[in-house]
Amino acid sequence: MTARDQLTGYVALQRLLDRRAALKRELDTPPEALAALRTQFAERHEQLAAARARREELAAEQATLQREAEALAEEREHFRKQKSQVTNVKQLSAVVSELDHVETQYKAKEDRLLEILQGLEAAEAAIATLGAESPEERALREQAEAAWEQRRQASAGELSALENELRSVQAQLGKAAMDRFRKLWSSRKPNAVVAMDGTACSACHGDLRPSLVQLVRQAEELQFCDHCRRLLYDPEQFQPPA
Ligand SMILES: [Zn+2]
């Protein structure tokens, strides 16, 4: 295998590896608009769950308070009857004091029950608002999901074709050339094989000696940047496949 063939294979590998990295990034990154819709949807569900939990909590407290208020009302009735049957001032003052006490407790329960009722109304309103994703919102979200899924599938298809191409280039290069590439790659990834940029290295931007530029153009041997030790090629001669 000539050095030019080897360089051709290395340039192809570098381009395939670049494309593979880009595809993998693409597959891992849903479009921003979709990510925003997903976040919005998730937040709405969290708020909805919180409102439902709040409603349950309030309903439970309401049930307890209602039982307690009923018991107090019975007690009050009992003391009112007693009050009508007292026979002296001492008894009267004792019953009135009990009655006051029960009345205060009852009032507190009633006040809290009113608060709970308002809280329940607020929770119900929140649930009604949050629970209803409008058909338009839903369509928008589902469309965005479907478009993303389609793009993902296209990327996944391209990725699998690309893996095949990678294997084929590797096979063409053979073991010795691949070992050499891997060594270069392991120390210089993700850019091991780089184009000249005029008379400079496109990776480190260091200027190249005129004689080195000449050698890179001739492509009779592999040439490396003096500064960053990356493998250089002349982009005029190694153009990406159309
Ligand atoms: Zn360089």
* CATH class descriptor of the domain at 25-173: Mainly Alpha
Shape: rod-shaped
Question: How many beta-strand segments?
Answer: 4
Distance between the termini: 25 Å
How big a fraction of the residues is strand?
Answer: under 5%
Rg estimate, integer Å: 40 Å
The hetero compounds bound to this protein are: zinc ion
Q: What's the helix count?
A: 5
- CATH-derived architecture of the domain at 25-173: Orthogonal Bundle
Strands side by side in the biggest sheet: 2-1-4-3
Could you report the average pLDDT, rounded to the nearest whole number?
94
Indicate the low-confidence ranges by residue numbers: none
Order of helices and strands: HHHHEEHEE
The helix fraction, in percent, is over 70%
Assembly state of the chains shown: single chain
Structural class: mainly alpha
Largest sheet: 4 strands, mixed
The CATH topology of the domain at 25-173 is Helix Hairpins
Structure description:
By secondary structure, the protein is mostly helical. 77% of the residues lie in helices and 5% in strands. The protein contains 5 helices and 4 strands; from the N terminus they run ααααββαββ. The protein has helices at 3-28, 32-85, 89-131, 135-188, 210-218; strands at 193-197, 200-201, 223-224, 231-233. α1 runs antiparallel to α4 (135-188).
